[in-house]
Amino acid sequence: MVMRWFKENVWAAVAVTLLRIYVGWQWIDAGWHKLTGGFDASGFLKGAVGKPVADHATKEVLFPNYTYFLNHFALPNVKLINILIPCGEFLIGLGLILGGLTLTAAFFGMLLNFMFLMAGTVSTNPWLLMLGVIVFTAGANARRFGLDAYLLPLLRKGWTKLTNRTDHTKTDNNINGKVLPH
């Protein structure tokens, strides 16, 4: 009953919209500072690999696959990471503030928060992760007041047009009224 209210009620949509804008502002602000401030992830990545998250008692690495990913993909491709992180944060914020591709933005925001947490950075990540889960859980109600009301029907129409091509011979092999052989 509570989840139904949360996912369908207009007042819940208003509350989630305000929450969505707040979380979006946090992301867009972080991304903007990285885009304009000469962001370099190499020190962070080296620190995450050099001192991974480990069990206090056994000193065993808790996320060995993630540490492997950082060491063997992220560090060698740090120039790509230096572009993806700030642009990703900025786009997540933009999507949440404008309500465009809202659930996609919330998903990728949660994913980034998990990645930062697995690298050992706490900061505001648990807080933003919890708020992101609330926005994501609201589903369609989270995007009720935003660009998704206009954007999603256009995307559905384009996707339907793209996937419902039935006869390729009429469009692909017909030049000036002559049907060409395959």
Automatic annotation (TrEMBL):
InterPro entries with a match to the protein in the record: DoxX
Domain of life, source organism: Bacteria
Keywords from the UniProt entry: Membrane, Transmembrane, Transmembrane helix
Keyword Membrane: yes
Residue ranges of the TM segments: 90-115, 127-146
Alphabetized Pfam families for the sequence: DoxX
Subcellular location: Membrane
Bilayer topology annotation: Multi-pass membrane protein
Family annotation (PANTHER family): DOXX FAMILY PROTEIN (PTHR39157:SF1), INTEGRAL MEMBRANE PROTEIN-RELATED (PTHR39157)
Protein name in UniProt: DoxX family membrane protein
